[in-house]
């Protein structure tokens, strides 16, 4: 799924507690959940999302006991899912969260009382 | 992961936009996201969550073009993740959502401004 295609997932959505997803919506949503369905990626996402601002990959890797290339692979999956973005500056790559996608997932799973918040 | 172990995931939580997850929290959270990281399961979850009340498996299967045993397998994964529960009555099994788990996931992914809602 390209980042452009995933744009349709932002700015939505009706919670699943209010309306069933059609097959296309379910396929798109499942792809984003898949990006978070790994302990390393979910922890990476939380480190980037809670950093307050952008965070250097050099400040991310010390949190993990896996190799740099492994971290890079997982960051790429998060980026392709539209959950984070990044920019290389000199030696290091800096990451920041794309809150629209998290908000979309959050509202998709919200209870009816919280819909639209 | 047993249903009992997953109980710790309810009644929480600090959004990942506010605090990074520790490895154990990330492992638990990723396991629940994995249950939703499949198009059939996410659609099943939305059908059960939006039914308003419990729903007979006989009203679920017509939405899908896959076999009954395949649907049963995916429903079992959702049940083991603590997202739905069920009861057999006579010929049919009836499913209902467990909203605490959806609320937990929703707040985990919520933006800081929506935290605690």
From TrEMBL, chains A, B:
Keywords: DNA-binding, Transcription, Transcription regulation. GO terms for molecular function: DNA binding; DNA-binding transcription factor activity. Gene3D superfamilies: Winged helix-like DNA-binding domain superfamily/Winged helix DNA-binding domain. Residues 21-117 form the HTH arsR-type domain. It holds the Pfam family HTH_5. PANTHER family: ARSENICAL RESISTANCE OPERON REPRESSOR, TRANSCRIPTIONAL REGULATOR, ARSR FAMILY. This is Transcriptional regulator. It comes from Kribbella sindirgiensis.
């Amino acid at each position: 799924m390209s980042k452009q295609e995933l744009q349709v997932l932002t700015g939505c959505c009706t919670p699943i507690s209010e309306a069933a997803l059609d097959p296309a919506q379910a396929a798109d949503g499942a792809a984003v959940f898949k990006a978070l369905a790994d302990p390393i990626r979910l922890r990476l996402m939380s480190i980037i999302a809670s950093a307050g601002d952008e965070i250097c990959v050099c400040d991310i890797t010390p949190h993990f006991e896996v190799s740099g290339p492994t971290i890079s692979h997982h960051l790429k999956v998060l980026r392709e899912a539209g959950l984070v973005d990044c920019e290389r500056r000199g030696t290091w790559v800096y990451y920041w969260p794309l809150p629209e996608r998290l908000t979309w997932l959050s509202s998709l799973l919200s209870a009816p009382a919280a819909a639209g918040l």
